[in-house]
Each structure stands twice: as C-alpha cells, then as structure tokens.
Amino acid sequence: MQDTIIGQLKETAAFIKNIYPTEPHIGIVLGSGLGNLAEEIEIEKEISYKDIPHFPISTVEGHYGKMVFGKINGKNVVAMSGRFHYYEGYTAQQVVFPIRLMKFLGVKTLLISNAAGGMNLSFKVGNLMIIKDHISLFTVNPLLGKNDEELGVRFPDMSEPYDRSLIIKAKKIAADLGIEIKEGVYAGVTGPTFETRAEYKLLHIVGGDAVGMSTVQEVIAAVHIGLKVFAISVITDIGIREEDNIITHEEVLQAAAEAEPKLTAIFKQLIAEL
To answer: In terms of DSSP H, where are the helices of the chain?
Structure first.
C-alpha cells in the first residue's frame, strides 16, 4: 500500500486498468440529481467506489457512488456518478483524488456538472449556466502542502480555468438545440449549510452569479494536472429573494432532474465534437 499521493494514484490506476484496459479521453463529473447522463453511456464497465483502492465513499443523496466506463457518441469516457465534497469530512486532497486519477487513466478533457444557487437577478430556477470563471476564496485550496512536480507546477496559472474553446462550442450547441443558456461566475463555498441572506449578497457583490459546494477544488486540481475543463451549473434555487428564503435539498434535486435533459443534450453533443 502506497502512502504518497503519486504512489496511491499509480496503484489505483493500475487496479482499474487491470479491470478495464481501454483508455478514456473524456472524464465526466455528475452533480446532485444529475446522474442520468450515465444512462446515455454505452456501459462497458462499472466499478463501485467502495471497491477502488484509496477512494472515498460518496455519502450524499443524489450521488450514486460508482465510476462508469464506456462510450458516448463513439468516444471513450469515464463518468463519476457521485462526487465527493469537503463538507462530508474529506480533506481537499481526497475530494480531488478522482480528478487526478482521471489524468492517470488517460483523460484529457474534463466535463463537470453541478447544482447551484442563483444570485444573478436575471436567472430563473432550471436555467443552465456555463461557468466562465470561479471564485475559490471561500473554500480550501487542494494544492496546499508540499507540491509534487509529477502533478503540476507549484504556482499554476488560473487565468483561464474553464477552456474558452469548449465554452464557444457549447454555446453554439445550445443555440442549435434551442436551449437557453446563461454564462457566469461560480462562487465555491464549503457548505453544508445553504447561505444566509447576507452571505448571498456578499457573494453576489464580489462577482458571483451562482454559488455551490463543489467544483472549484476539482477544477483547481484539474488545471494543475493539465486537463481542459468545461463546466455547467443547473440553477436549482434563487438565493437572492425577498420572500420566503428556505431552501431544501429535495427542492434542489427536483429542479436538477427537470433541467437534466437539456444538460444531457449539450454534454452528449459536446462529447461528439471533442
């Protein structure tokens, strides 16, 4: 059993390649209530997280807990059906372990989805928002600690964490499919509490259009290790509002499920064009 991150990644990658030797070039992370894209995969292998060495176990409703290998539109993909969150008690390094693993398996492009609270006053529940940038100051950076050059440089550039060419492609795909698409900045927080009214206002003032409890740590690790990233938020609730401000996880899952067919259509076509 290895005790360094690189050693663990190599050990886990070898374990998976022994079971599924085909190299996936596209990685997908499916957020809360957004697991059905996995059903679009021509599945060749599924591996439960509990069977994968060094893997955390997903504990959140709406996150299924398996890696799914196969094809979408003829392209080899690996999907994380269920992700890990800092608020579950994992370290930031554990949260991003699967992202780093994808690189070791052969992934070059990472597609991410999440459920997020809207703060842009033009947003409505069910909107899709392409993430063009993020604010990571309110969560823990996964690169803290000793840097390993095999993963990436000590001070990675984050001026374009979300690949512009993929954003342009996705916007054209959405237009061709007749799907309304927003674009904005995602503010990452630790959770697990939903934000107070004052926190929503603060996050909006500093530039956030949507807020959520995932994604930014994954993206930081992905950029560090050299993956191209594209991400979409499903706006599952509106945080800045004057009336009753109570938000439940059940409402989030319902809104995500209703928006899911649009997200799936965009991801499928984007994968076809990669």
So the answer is: 5-19, 92-105, 164-177, 197-205, 216-225, 249-273
pLDDT, tens only, 177-192: 999 999 999 999 999 9
Q: What is the pLDDT of residues 47-69, one digit of tens each?
A: 999 899 998 865 555 546 889 99
**Is-cis flag, bond preceding 24, omega within 30?**
no
Of 209, 156, 215, give the one whose Cα is nearest residue 189.
Answer: 215
Give the whole-angstrom CA distance, residue 76 versus residue 70: 6
Q: What is the DSSP string of 50-82?
A: GGSTT-----STT---EEEEEEETTEEEEEEES
Closest by Cα among 174, 160, 82 to 130:
174
Question: Is the CATH number of domain 5-273 3.40.50.1580?
Answer: yes
pTM, whole model, 2 decimals? 0.92
- DSSP-derived 3-state class of residue 256: helix
- Selection from 76, 90, 33, 56 nearest residue 217 by Cα: 90
